[in-house]
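so my prof wants the structure for this chain in the tokens format not the other one, which i didnt know existed until like an hour ago. anyway here's the sequence
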Amino acid sequence: MKILVSACLAGINCRYDGKNKVNKKIKKMVEEGKAVCVCPEELGELSNPRPASEILNSTGEDVLKGKAKVINKRGEDVTSNFIKGAYKTLDIAKKYKINKAILKSKSAACGKESIYDGSFKNRLIKGNGVTCALLLKNNMKVLTEAEWENKKAP
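here's what i got, hopefully its the right format
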């Protein structure tokens, strides 16, 4: 059974700053064909590099319900890009019959249980990113890279 992983964790330079957050074990899983990479922000047609984005004082669940917005550091509304990327990520998971994901923590797209608050001051709030929220809503098991490392399991 394959696992869905945030592409930046596999060493792909797709983060907002054009860099990655490689995890060597996750990269190896991708190289061995055990994992499928996704970058919801790029799937949502955001450029690379791009301004950092945060959910404005809310969560991914609220973004999906139309009750909150994702704003980039320039003040531009990129909500539709995040929603589009989340649904494309879900489509990929369904295509490959994947029911488990390892996503980058704290991200407005991928974060689980803790995300930045929209102030761009490195303040965290409880909540999930847009893609994480959509995957959880569709009964996928989602782990952050730290949770996955602690479990030591594929």
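also thought this was worth mentioning. DSSP finds six helices and eight strands in the chain.
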